């Protein structure tokens, strides 16, 4: 049983469940982007700049999830972000 303002005959119940599941996934993604990557405070003042920052943050989250799947670690997303940042900074220092 679920609560919605849609007419019961408007959509198949399975479709409604799938839509709400997808909505939940999107909400979790944005919560994690805001919580871990600070996407609420953009550096850019233009639409293209903000879209670029948002796109870069999403790519970062994909890379973090890929890393977590390939190399399980304790601590979840924050520790994975720290590991990526530390590795990136170490690489930059070694390059010069």
UniProtKB/TrEMBL annotation:
Signal peptide start-end: none
Entry's transmembrane regions: 46-64
Superkingdom: Archaea
Keyword Acyltransferase: no
Entry keyword set: Membrane, Transmembrane, Transmembrane helix
A GO biological process held by the record: DNA transposition
InterPro entries: RNaseH-like_sf (IPR012337), Transposase_11 (IPR002559)
Domain Transposase IS4-like: 6-59
Molecular function terms, GO-annotated: DNA binding; transposase activity
Official protein name in the record: IS4 family transposase
Organism classification: Archaea, Methanobacteriati, Methanobacteriota, Stenosarchaea group, Halobacteria
């Amino acid at each position: 049983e679920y609560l919605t303002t849609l007419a019961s005959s408007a959509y198949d119940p399975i479709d409604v469940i799938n839509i709400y599941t997808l909505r939940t996934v999107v909400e979790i993604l944005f919560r994690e982007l805001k919580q871990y990557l600070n996407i609420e405070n953009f550096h850019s003042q233009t639409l293209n700049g903000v879209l670029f920052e948002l796109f870069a943050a999403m790519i970062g989250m994909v890379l973090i999830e890929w890393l977590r799947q390939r190399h399980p670690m304790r601590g979840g997303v924050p520790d994975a972000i720290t590991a990526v940042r530390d590795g990136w900074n170490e690489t930059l220092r070694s390059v010069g």
